[in-house]
Amino acid sequence: MKTKKSYVVGTSMFQVIGGWTIWFMAIVLAIYIGSVVFSNFTGNSFEMSVPSFMEEGSETSIAALLGNSGRIFFLVCGILSMGPFLQYFVSMGVTRKAYFKGNVMGVFLLAVSFTLLTAILYGAEYFIFGNFSNSFEQMSLYFVKLALDIVIFYLVGWFIAAGFYRMNLIMGVSFILISLVVIFIHSGLWGEDLPLAIFSIISVENYSAVIIVLLNALLIGALVYTIRQLTKNMTVKA
User: What pLDDT is attached to residue 156?
Assistant: First the structure.
């Protein structure tokens, strides 16, 4: 059976960016261990921001650090998924449609893998220290949010890159502003602190988590559709 080119693109991008992700997680883990050791030595607490549905005990977990830093990492990965990747695959005879489908497949594989690895590290940390106050339900919801974070931020990075790739500099900046609104809406849905309260009108604190996840799915669908329209007839630069 002939392998679909979109599958080749997806697995190739998953392998490349997955390799970056392993290095990223290893570096974050080393920083986390060093920070915890240093904070214990100096007597200062090591804290990070977490969603409002989490308890205070999660502020020093590896899951919180990977969740916060992972969003920026995958935003950058989304930006890098354009340019050289697109040029390479097109030069190998891959259509824009196959590249698009493969990239979408890749981001979901990355989100699942990153979330599972983070959950394993958190489980190991819990097994060793066992002093976290979050319930199983809270942590399950956190890992659902983490997977959605990865998808949203990767797509936002891809969206920004596609905007600059296809439009001029001024129009490209407008894509950054739109992306900020998307990120604020996504974060507001999960009850995170935001500079503008309007983005927190709908929050996981006031509505069912299922509704929040469905709204996130609609947001992801809108991003995927918009990126497809931007890249459908895009001129690939040499």
Answer: 96
Q: At what angle do helices 5-42 and 96-129 cross, to 10 degrees?
A: 30
Amino acid at residue number 148: L
Could you give the CA distance from residue 111 to residue 38 in angstroms, rounded to a whole number?
Answer: 31
The predicted pLDDT at position 169 comes to 76
Give CA–CA dist 126/132, Å, rounded.
7
DSSP-derived secondary structure for 213-238: HHHHHHHHHHHHHHHHHHHTTPPPP-
CB count within 10 Å of CB 36 equals 16
**Cα→Cα distances 88→5, 62, 165, 238, Å:** 13, 36, 15, 10
Domain boundaries, the chain: 5-231
Neighbouring C-beta atoms of residue 2, cutoff 10 Å: 4
| Average pLDDT score over the chain | 83
Burial of 117 (0-12, 13-18, 19+ CB in 10 A): middle
Half-sphere exposure at residue 119, Cβ-oriented, CA atoms within 13 angstroms: 17
Closest CA to 52 of 134, 113, 132, 118: 134
Position 211 scores a pLDDT of 86
